[in-house]
């Protein structure tokens, strides 16, 4: 077990680096001011590739010009805010090394590393039952070496054979269902492919405050709060194989955790100083046949919770307080691997393990089916007003966009999607020259995040062939605009240290001065990268809602895309 | 024991006390524990008793207008309500019945197919079954079954309730079962069950088809006289059908299947039906299995009685060659068991389908216009309906519509925020917000009364101190700050209300050491409003403190009410006045009688058996308090969504004027609910049954209320943010708001 995690180091004041690197006033308006935080050891360098003391000017961005890119090239950005970043909220940047975390806390199985030691049969059977259910139990008994159970073993082996035959029949009909749970978790988890080797399994920002929850390898969930030193660590008997965490909106501290067999809803007291909330605070939502739960989504109105499993063909709509649930069933396509509720609460994206995804309309719960050409929908994200969906397909290195007609309550039961999805960005692998050699960036998109103002889009791009030297997993950041016409402009890259790969990305939901991207690296580090800009997305209803100053700068594209990174 | 039957009353009232406006319905129907609101729409062949009840219902609404209106006005109001009901619900019920009738041939075909099953000769089986389907007796059976389904639907319509009635003790449950209305329900269902079983027997054919079969009584080998004998299989079928009908009726009561739970998400009716169908079939199969098992046991012991009776009355012999069925070996007939079980499944599936359709159609959203387009529509527009006292189902539908429009429909929200054309008054918003606020204020008062009762009970003594602080803060502010006049009689200013409650609770405080779970807890605990106890005979009567101290509250206010003969439909305020005047001069005999009664009660209360029947289930009492919380949840959601939307959409600032009142009401309610959840047993969750046909969502409504209250407050604070500091609220509430703004609640 990891001890108490190191206290979050006070972030180095970014102004120091500014002072060293650039005088801030000379910065171009559209630059991305990335300042990844350093952990206290200093062994983490965000981008060793691109030296810090020079502005990136030479090569064009390694992104093909987006195929659908319409509208004026000059975003009406106001001049950047003065770099008064001293009053950033003190966000905890962490390193949670994997070594410190024990693997999934299971009762020890019979295989001890040094001493050949076998538990008693009943103990092993119990263990197998807990791990693998009835089938595991049968297998364990069949493979038992004890004497005197010959007849039982013979009978049970017949049963096991029959089961296997039946399941193979079942599997030939619905291929994704025959995949074992553990194998299933890897590809369908929010984080990506190699789920086994990462310390951080899931990450979620609280929708209103500077607070986030991290699910760790040992199935505990920790809650970090910028304003308090208490770090509650949530553990529960049923909290196994955590795949997703989600905070309830419009609520102080209710956290839903997707576990192997159920959804746990933790009711945390935001003022409590306890570091180990009792399991009595957790509400268990389980439904027969609905496991393992791998994705969760809260309605933005805070009323309903969606949970889905790749194995269960139905996704469940929970009324958490009464523990009532409604099954949303459809036939064909298998389970649900990815859920995303649009920020305006009107639509839900549900991806399936087959080459089809659905967009549900969240009032009457009808859906539109979208078959994809190649593979399953890997990830997707909604624009803040819920009118545009960006998604990617497994095996293709492009971002698709799907626009929806503006949501009005009067068109009941219509999703209102456009006829076809258009490609907005091609992210296939590109080589470009840097002063330090040739760099290759591009490939399949692993996950995407759109910031709440709708002005930055972060994408984890994984090289298609990980063995090829030089192709790394990077986070690409785009500048986006959704209205009046959709725009997507490349902005820059983020890269970890040599062995660190970005696993999870999320934007801070209420960062005042622009956008704050949080990246969880495969080394167990969590870093926060702020982007300072003046948003054209004025919080609605604020009194001085004036149109942003349009600066007629046709030279936006010529501006260096990397100022610091 | 006249007092015994009063307990169900209490629970019914406990489920209903809401300031006494409009829900006089409950007071009238206390002898009829099911809240029956529906008009007998489309059911001309109604039993006489039900008709009578319906008249009671009409009088009930009339009673609401008693305050100022004459009988003519009453009749007019009742007529209007009925017209409204018919307009909103009529076509839905007709459609529900039509659909369940349409599905009947499908069920029948499935039954015929399964009853003639021949696993070894599948082709023969299929061809036989399809031939059977067109025979005249199957067609006749379908027609007969349609009548049965119609009757079942009528019972569904008559017995539904949007607020569940929760029996607080075992005695209350027994009282509900032997209640005449329920007896009628059970008998009718048993008869219907018998009819279904007869149809099933006819369709099954074979040895089950006829009651009388020819047989030969062979006294000697060559002297065989053909005679008619009793076919015990047929009798077994009929009796099992009656038994299942009775079981259905009983479970319908016990599981509160008459409760219309509104769905958590809106879905199309077809999808809802499709979703519930597998559950329904599974539930029917399992239930039928249990019923058949129980019936076999019953028949084993008592089967000879109906057999003898039938054979003597119909002059049928009993065939001695056949094996009698009320023996162990006779009952071990697998084919018989299968057919009876299948008959039970058939019965339950058809009835549950009728029930399901009724439920789906009745809880479907109804679109009430916010602003009338034509003058004659004025009665049906949302603000008007909310402010009149419609039948509860209409009120629920209206609140549901309010919740939906506030969440999904900007156009209709705009209508809510609009000003009236001549005059420029925000009538729509005023009416809607006033109704929502008065609902919430009622709930607050109810909970306060409940808590005071609990505090008085000695269980939560420490809360008395807090209570003393609270009365002057919220309610008074609410009453004053609301910019429009709350002229409704039910909105009692808080100070007055709490003093009333206090005075009523004075005698209760004298009973120490009683527990919530004990039968002798104060009536106010079990009935939610302490106000009700004003009508109790103890109020104001001279009693020796000794008797008072020992006096267990075995018969609660209900018995007193009966003695007083005061009307159930009277509002608390009215009853206060009336009972108060009655109780001012208690006669000596009356006091003596009271003492005697007390002594008898005291004597009885020491007996264990009585204790068993009277002991209140704490969970049930708490559920009863929140049984109508769905209304409040919708009011909260509707109000908070409207207020949040008003930040950008309210052009004339009509919401701003009400914002302090809304915040005050919500924060007060929040305070009270928080305190309520500290009472014993309140915060523990009842066990949940997932994936069953029986809806138990009413058991956890209190948690839903708490969650939606918090969400409502957060919704407002999140949208308004720092602007809330400019809103005039008391310092205490300001502090609370600040906590909400910081997400610390």
Automatic annotation (TrEMBL), chain A:
Comp. bias (Pro residues): 1-15, 73-92
GO annotations of cellular component type: centrosome; cytosol; mitotic spindle; nuclear membrane; nuclear pore; nucleoplasm; spindle pole
Stretches the record annotates as Disordered: 1-111
Pfam families reported for this sequence: Beta-prop_Aladin (PF25460)
Record GO biological process: fertilization; glutathione metabolic process; learning; microtubule bundle formation; mitotic spindle assembly; multicellular organism growth; nucleocytoplasmic transport; response to oxidative stress
Domain Aladin seven-bladed propeller span(s) in chain numbering: 199-531
InterPro entries xref list: Aladin, Beta-prop_Aladin, WD40/YVTN_repeat-like_dom_sf, WD40_repeat_dom_sf, WD40_rpt
Official protein name in the record: Aladin WD repeat nucleoporin
Gene expressing this chain: AAAS
Automatic annotation (TrEMBL), chain B:
One Pfam family linked to the record: Ndc1_Nup
Any GO MF annotation of the entry: structural constituent of nuclear pore
Broad class of the protein's primary localization: nucleus
Keyword Membrane attributed: yes
Keywords for this protein: Membrane, mRNA transport, Nuclear pore complex, Nucleus, Protein transport, Translocation, Transmembrane, Transmembrane helix, Transport
Superkingdom to which the source organism belongs: Eukaryota
GO cellular component labels: actin cytoskeleton; cytoplasm; nuclear membrane; nuclear pore transmembrane ring; plasma membrane
Topology of the protein relative to the lipid bilayer: Multi-pass membrane protein
Compartment(s) of residence: Nucleus membrane; Nucleus, Nuclear pore complex
Function: Component of the nuclear pore complex (NPC), which plays a key role in de novo assembly and insertion of NPC in the nuclear envelope. Required for NPC and nuclear envelope assembly, possibly by forming a link between the nuclear envelope membrane and soluble nucleoporins, thereby anchoring the NPC in the membrane.
Similarity field: Belongs to the NDC1 family.
Protein name, as recorded: Nucleoporin NDC1
Organism: Gallus gallus (Chicken)
Lineage: Eukaryota, Metazoa, Chordata, Craniata, Vertebrata
């Amino acid at each position: 077990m990891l001890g108490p995690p190191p206290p979050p180091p006070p972030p180095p004041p970014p102004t120091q680096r500014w002072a060293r690197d650039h005088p801030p006033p000379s910065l171009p308006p559209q630059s991305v001011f990335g300042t990844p935080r350093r952990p206290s050891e200093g062994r983490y360098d965000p981008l060793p590739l691109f030296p810090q003391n020079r502005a990136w000017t030479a090569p064009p961005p390694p992104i093909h010009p987006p195929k659908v890119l319409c509208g004026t090239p000059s975003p009406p950005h106001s001049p950047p805010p003065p770099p008064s970043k001293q009053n950033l909220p003190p966000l905890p940047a962490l390193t949670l090394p994997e070594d410190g975390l024990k693997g999934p806390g299971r009762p020890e199985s019979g295989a001890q590393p040094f001493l050949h030691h076998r538990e008693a049969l009943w103990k092993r059977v119990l263990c197998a039952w807990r791990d693998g259910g009835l089938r595991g139990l049968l297998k364990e008994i069949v493979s038992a070496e004890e004497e005197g159970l010959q007849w039982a073993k013979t009978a049970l082996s017949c049963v096991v054979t029959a089961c296997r035959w039946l399941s193979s029949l079942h599997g030939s009909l619905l291929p994704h269902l025959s995949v074992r749970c553990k194998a299933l978790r890897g590809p369908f988890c929010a984080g990506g492919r190699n789920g086994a080797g990462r310390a951080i399994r899931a990450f979620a920002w609280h929708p209103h405050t500077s607070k986030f929850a991290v699910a760790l390898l040992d199935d505990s969930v920790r809650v970090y709060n910028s304003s308090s030193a208490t770090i509650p660590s949530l553990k529960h008997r049923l909290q196994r194989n955590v795949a997703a965490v989600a905070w309830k909106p419009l609520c102080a501290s209710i956290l839903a955790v997707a576990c192997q067999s159920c959804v746990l809803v933790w009711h945390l007291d935001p003022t409590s100083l306890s570091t180990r909330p009792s399991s009595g605070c957790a509400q268990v939502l389980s439904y027969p046949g609905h496991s393992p739960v791998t994705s969760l989504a809260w309605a933005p109105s805070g009323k309903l919770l969606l949970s889905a499993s790749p194995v269960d063909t139905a996704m469940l709509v929970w009324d958490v307080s009464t523990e009532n649930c409604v099954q949303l069933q459809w036939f064909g396509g298998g389970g649900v691997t990815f859920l995303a509720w649009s920020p305006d609460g009107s639509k839900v994206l549900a991806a399936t393990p087959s080459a089809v995804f659905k967009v549900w309309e969240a009032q009457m719960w009808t859906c539109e089916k979208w078959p994809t050409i190649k593979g399953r929908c890997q990830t997707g994200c909604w624009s803040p007003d819920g009118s545009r969906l960006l998604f990617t397909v497994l095996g293709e290195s492009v971002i698709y966009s799907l626009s929806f007609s503006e949501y009005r309550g009067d068109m009941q039961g219509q999703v209102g999607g456009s006829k076809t999805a258009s490609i907005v960005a091609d992210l296939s692998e590109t080589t470009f020259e840097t002063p330090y050699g040739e760099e290759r960036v591009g490939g399949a998109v692993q996950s995407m995040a759109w910031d709440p103002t709708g002005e930055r889009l972060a994408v984890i791009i994984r090289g298609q062939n990980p063995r090829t030297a030089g192709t790394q997993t990077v986070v690409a950041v785009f500048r986006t605009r959704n209205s009046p016409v959709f725009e997507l402009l490349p902005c820059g890259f983020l890269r970890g240290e040599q062995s660190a790969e970005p696993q999870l990305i999320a934007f801070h939901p209420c960062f005042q001065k622009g956008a704050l991207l949080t990246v969880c690296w495969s080394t167990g580090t969590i870093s926060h990268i702020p982007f300072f800009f003046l948003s054209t997305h004025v919080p609605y209803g604020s009194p001085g809602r004036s149109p942003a100053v349009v600066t007629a700068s046709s030279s936006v594209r010529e501006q260096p895309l990397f100022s610091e990174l | 024991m006249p007092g015994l039957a009063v307990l169900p009353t209490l629970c019914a009232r406990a489920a209903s006390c809401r300031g006494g406006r409009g829900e006089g319905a409950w007071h009238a129907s206390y002898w009829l524990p099911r809240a029956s609101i529906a008009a007998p729409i489309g059911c001309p062949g109604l039993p006489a008793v039900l008709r009578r009840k319906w008249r009671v219902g009409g009088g009930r609404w009339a009673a609401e207008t008693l305050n100022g209106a004459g009988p003519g006005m009453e009749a007019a109001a009742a007529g209007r309500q009925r017209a409204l009901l018919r307009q909103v619900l009529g076509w839905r019920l007709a459609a529900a019945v039509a659909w369940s009738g349409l599905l009947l041939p499908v069920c029948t075909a499935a039954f015929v197919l399964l009853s003639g099953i021949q696993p070894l000769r599948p082709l023969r089986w299929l061809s036989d079954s399809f031939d059977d389907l067109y025979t005249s007796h199957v067609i006749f059976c379908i027609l007969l079954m349609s009548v049965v389904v119609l009757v079942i639907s009528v019972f569904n319509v008559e017995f539904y309730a949007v607020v569940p009635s929760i029996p607080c003790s075992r005695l209350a449950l027994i009282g509900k079962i032997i209640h005449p209305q329920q007896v009628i329900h059970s008998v009718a269902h048993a008869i219907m069950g018998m009819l279904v079983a007869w149809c099933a027997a006819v369709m099954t054919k074979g040895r089950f088809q006829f009651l009388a079969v020819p047989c030969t009584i062979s006294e000697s080998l060559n002297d065989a006289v053909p005679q008619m004998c009793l076919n015990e299989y047929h009798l077994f079928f009929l009796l099992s059908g009656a038994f299942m009908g009775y079981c259905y009726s009983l479970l319908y009561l016990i599981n509160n299947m008459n409760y219309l739970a509104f769905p958590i998400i809106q879905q199309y009716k077809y999808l809802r039906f499709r979703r519930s169908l597998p559950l329904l079939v599974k539930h029917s199969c399992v239930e039928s299995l249990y019923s058949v098992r129980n019936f076999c046991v019953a028949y084993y012991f008592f089967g000879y009685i109906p057999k003898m009776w039938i054979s003597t009355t119909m002059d049928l012999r009993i065939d001695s060659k056949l094996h009698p069925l009320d023996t162990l070996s006779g009952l071990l007939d697998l084919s018989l068991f299968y057919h009876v079980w299948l008959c039970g499944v058939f019965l339950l599936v058809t009835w549950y389908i009728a029930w399901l359709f009724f439920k789906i159609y009745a809880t479907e959203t109804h679109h009430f216009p916010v602003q009338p387009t034509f003058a004659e529509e004025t009665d049906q527009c949302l603000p008007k309906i909310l402010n009149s006292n419609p039948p509860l189902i209409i009120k629920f539908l209206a609140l549901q519509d309010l919740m939906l429009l506030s969440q999904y429909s900007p156009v209709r929200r705009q209508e809510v925020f609009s000003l009236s054309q001549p005059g420029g008054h925000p009538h729509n918003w005023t009416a809607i917000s006033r109704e929502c606020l008065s609902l919430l204020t009622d709930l607050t008062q109810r909970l306060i009364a409940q808590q005071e009762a609990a505090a008085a009970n000695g269980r939560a003594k420490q809360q008395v101190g807090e209570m003393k602080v609270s009365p002057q803060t919220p309610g008074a502010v609410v009453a004053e700050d609301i910019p429009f006049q709350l002229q409704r009689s039910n909105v009692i200013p808080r100070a007055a209300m709490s003093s009333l409650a206090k005075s009523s609770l004075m005698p209760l405080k004298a009973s120490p050491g009683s527990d919530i779970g004990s039968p002798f807890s104060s009536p106010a605990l079990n009935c939610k409003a302490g106000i009700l106890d004003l009508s109790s005979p103890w109020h104001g009567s001279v009693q020796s403190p000794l008797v008072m101290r020992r006096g267990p509250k075995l018969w609660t206010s209900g018995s007193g009410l009966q003695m007083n003969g005061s009307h159930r439909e009277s509002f608390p305020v009215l009853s206060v006045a009336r009972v108060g005047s009655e109780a001012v001069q208690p006669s000596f005999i009356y006091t003596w009688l009271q003492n005697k009664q007390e002594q008898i009660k005291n004597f009885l209360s020491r007996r264990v058996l009585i204790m068993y029947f009277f002991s209140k289930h704490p969970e049930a009492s708490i559920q009863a308090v929140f049984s109508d919380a769905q209304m409040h949840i919708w009011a909260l959601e509707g109000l908070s969504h409207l207020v949040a939307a008003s930040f950008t959409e309210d052009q004339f600032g009509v919401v701003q004027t009400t914002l302090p009142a809304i915040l005050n009401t919500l924060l007060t309610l929040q305070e009270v609910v928080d305190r309520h959840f500290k009472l014993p047993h309140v915060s523990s969750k009842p066990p949940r049954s997932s994936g069953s046909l029986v809806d138990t969502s009413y058991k956890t409504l209190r948690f839903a209320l708490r969650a939606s209250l918090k969400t409502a407050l957060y919704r407002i604070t999140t949208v308004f943010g720092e602007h809330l500091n400019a809103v005039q609220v008391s310092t205490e509430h300001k502090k609370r708001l600040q906590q909400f703004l910081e997400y610390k609640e």
